[in-house]
What we know:
Layout: H1 7-28, H2 32-58, H3 60-86
Amino acid sequence: MQIEPWHVPLLVMAGIIVLELLAVLVLRDAGPAVRQFLRTAGLGTLALVLLVVVVVSIGPSLADQLASVAAAIAGIAALWLTYRSHRPSAAPPPSAEPGGERRTAA
Length: 106
């Protein structure tokens, strides 16, 4: 059997329906920790599939260029966050108390 292009959306939808049914059956009896783990694993899997599809569709050379741009943006963000975290914070005014109220002399 040969898969034609119009089969792909049907197969993807059938796969999504089967995965959704399995997820409902598994998550029905699972605890909150298992639910959170499975949701995180599912999200990671979807991100990985999306990354593979994007790289395959745009080609390795363009994907390499986009990765370089993304790395530069991430580097700039890391530099900014590092700068912000090492800046000395402004000291609170001397009249400020930890409780938030000012004490008055009686």
